[in-house]
Amino acid sequence: MVTIDQGKCIGCSACTSICGDVFEMKGDKAQVKAGQEKTSNEQVKAAIAGCPVSAISE
Ligand code: SF4
């Protein structure tokens, strides 16, 4: 399950740039797109690695 800790997310939008298929911005936070929670691929892993506050996990 791909999840974003909303308390950590600073809304930098890096994850949406790296992996727009799975992540989207909602207001000033990122969220996992509906139906994409089980997606696991290299782009998701790159987004996890690229999040500056380690808010994304799977
Ligand atoms: S990369 Fe991390 S801090 Fe930036 S928008 Fe995505 S979840 Fe939030």
Structure commentary:
The chain has 58 residues and is α+β, with helices and mostly antiparallel strands. The strands form 2 sheets. The chain has a two-stranded antiparallel sheet with strand order 1-4. The longest helix has 9 residues. The chain is globular. The mean pLDDT is 98. Bound molecules: iron/sulfur cluster (SF4).
Short structural summary:
This protein has two helices and four strands. Strands 1-4 form a two-stranded antiparallel sheet. Strands 2-3 form a two-stranded antiparallel sheet.
List keywords for this structure.
alpha+beta, single chain, globular, two-stranded antiparallel ribbon, 4 strands, binds iron/sulfur cluster, 58 residues, two-stranded antiparallel sheet
Main β-sheet: number of strands, strand sense, barrel status?
A: 2 strands, antiparallel
Order the strands across the largest sheet as they lie in space: 1-4
**Portion in helices:** 10-25%
C-alpha Rg (nearest Å): 10 Å
Structural class: alpha+beta
Low-confidence stretches: none
Helix count? 2
> Approximately how much beta-strand content do the residues carry?
15-25%
Distance between the termini: 5 Å
Shape from CA axes?
Answer: globular
According to DSSP, the number of beta strands is 4
Spell the H/E element sequence. EHEEHE
Bound molecules: iron/sulfur cluster
Summed over residues and divided by their number, the pLDDT gives a mean of: 98
